[in-house]
Batch of 3 targets.
Target 1
Amino acid sequence: MLEIDGSIGGGSVLRIGVGLAAALGKEIRIYNIRRSRSQPGLKAQHLAGLLGVAELCDAELEGAELGSQEVVFRPGGIRKDKLKIKIETAGSVGLVLQTLQLACLAASHSVEIEIDGGGTFGKWAPPLPYFKLVNFSILRRFGYRAEVEVDREGFYPKGGARVAAIFYPSQISGPLDLTERGQLLRITGTSLASTHLRRAEVAERQAAAARELLKYRIPIELDVRYADTRSPGSGIVLAAAFERTILGGDALGERGKRAEEVGREAAQSLIEDIKTGATLDLYMSDQMIPFTGLFGGCFRCPRLTEHLKTNIELVKRILERPVSVTQRESSVEISAR
């Protein structure tokens, strides 16, 4: 059984640890889960993802309850082709999908997932449009196809999202080489706001402010839309498509934060990552580490973050694969060979 001390990081230790264990078909025990947090142990979104993966893998679980700081996960085979998950809070739908994305690598068939509840936009988590525009698009290039559709968006505090995703059998066969990004081709994105904010034209203002900063001589296509939600909210996700990769940038609307500030924040984040010469943005670097650990590969990220350091350490401990980290002139190269 794999033994992982969860105090090396936060919730990502559970998500990545259980996801990799499911992909490998190995038992894992994770203890000291979120030990350094003000409210340690499993929260609702962690529990929802854990229970979902356990159901998918027909796994035996110990410690799967709110506040638990220790979990034992014993996966079986993936025989289900449909899965329903309930998130009682505004916890991130994207972070639940992150674990399932790894687990479904072990599936020999397509897996359809329905998620009821949770948030499609939220703090400290990739918004759901990011998965469609960046995560899924990059991994599709290497042979792992997935789709996601949103029937209802969810914002804090009520959440209430309804999301359908499907993961197809993985065809990844070799190293994920992202050492070069090629020419910048276009920038796409989604500027979204709840219908509560239509009168103030929040979605349009977010998009206009982002476009004003993005002065590249390439096509810039931003989808502006409104959605019926249980709580008011807004956000914007941008994606810069290069010949060989995609970089993302996003920002979340908050009470007292002008829509123009939200749009500029997302655009500035994207611009700064483009300037570094990185081949992946910070979010995707976190999410790519487990895949490079499993299949080998190399990429360049803007800088090392605590999340990235944690995920690298998990790959070393769980997969026993060496990972090299090399500081370049304006970016960091990460390689797992």
Note: The longest strand covers residues 82-92.
Target 2
Amino acid sequence: MTLPIRGLHLEYDARVVHLWSDEPLTVLSSAVVGSELTQTRHVVNLHVTHGYANRALCDDLNAFARELGISEPFVGLMTTAKTECAQVVIERAAAATVVAITTVDVSHPIAAGVTAAARVESSTINIVIVADVTLIQAARVNAVITATEAKTLALIEKDLRAPDGGFASGTGTDSIVIATTERGATHEYAGSISPLGALIAHAVRRAILSALQ
């Protein structure tokens, strides 16, 4: 799939969502594999079945990455969502170009701060944001907050309910990747009221709403 950010590529099917870049992207993530990385050229979101219980998550992701021909450090996620149904939303403005890629399975929703700690059930919302900008670290954290708020708002708009009957805020195993090209203007803030944060929020909200149609 052609993306409107120079050097950025995307393919997805029933096995995986694979995003890669000709040049290293600067990343912040909560990924299963590669969460310690600050730069990578590959983000892999691997489909697993409900009830997946292999404790060697890293081994499975590393093996699949080798199948894709990836021999360098990568960011790796897992999802029970149908990866062939990944939602790709593009938002553009003078401030930046933002791409949001989401995979959504809300079969086990929770409400943060309400739902009791319990065994993790297979259900995941994974969000990958790529922005053609330069970010300072604080803005990168802002972007995580903005994307999470937009995700939860979309779930509320769709009246998704947690086990207690109140609104759901997500699932127990949601994950996020914020990636930037480090080209162009430097952004020191990416909260939802900033030009860049607005693009991120719009992209994520649209992607989650579309997935829940």
Note: The two ends are 22 Å apart (CA to CA).
Target 3
Amino acid sequence: MTVDQSHRQRPLGPISGYRDAAFRWPCAARLVMILESAAVTVLVVSVLAGAALAQSPSSLQSSPIPSSLQSSPMPEQQTPTAAVIPSATAAPPEYRVGMGDVLGISVYDMPELGRTAVVGSKGTLLLSYFPQPLEVTGKTAQGIGQEVASELKRLQVLLDPQVSVTVLRVESKPVVVGGDVRNPHVLQEMRPLTLLEALMLVGGPGDNAGNSVLVTRADGTGSAISYDLPLSKVLSGTDPNSNILIKPGDTIQVLPDQKVFVAGAIKSPGAFPLGRGQRLTVSTLMALSGGWEADANPAKAVIVRQGTNGQRQTVPVNLPKIMARKQHDVALEPNDLLYVPGSTGKKVSLAVIKGVGGAAMLGLGYLIVRP
């Protein structure tokens, strides 16, 4: 028999050898099929991976990214040199800083440079990182912020400082409002105020307010000048001569309603208003109160008056003679008490009218009658 020598000398490849052996071992045939299938799978995966890597970056960016993983780019800073960050303040933007005002200073991204400072008595602001104090009186918060930023840049502390200045508390422009008002208070004039606006800020006049309001202010020479203005015209808001503009340092005082009192054997005892500059006499008071009672002793009437030394004094008056114009009429002063005794024939003394006088002069227990 002739033997095929070429076949016997041909080297067997890794797969072909297995395939030839498969004809002799069935189990080996199944192993060859598994290996071939795995090879095909590896080839397909390699092709897909190459295709994915070949995609452009734009196509990769088109796939959505969860919002929780997204980050916004930092905005580009385009602030000018020595910029000032606007900030909210209790005072309006046009407010001019004065001595005693409290300022809050903050520098962006540099909390160690933040300060709370008070404007000194010379109108300057002293910051520890500046060798010299800054003049700030009469300047706005924004203007002060610009100066602080410029100084930080000049001293090469920061290249592009961003400074915010806030007026934390205004203390430099006091206006005292007192007298007979609802809520006496020291206002701070952060903007121009009229007299009416100042009164409304403290709740308006009180129940016992008269018709006069005094505005006292310095005249620039070391002295003071007072304006006596009618409260009714101020409250109307229509008279610019009465509803004047208030200046820092002014003192506003609503004067109480001045009264005179009548008590004793009188038909209508009570308190009667006495306006500033008005004149009220004994005869007029008798007409307003209805006169004395039938059992009165009007010839022994007295006026109880508070003296300049704080002591009470009595002024005897004969009402029948005054009403008959046989005796000079007596002008009453604020807080005077006209007391008419009963017909007991006894002399009226301070001890007798002590309780009545004290109550009447304070307006207690009596009806206030307005003519």
Note: The chain has three domains: 83-169, 174-256, 259-361.
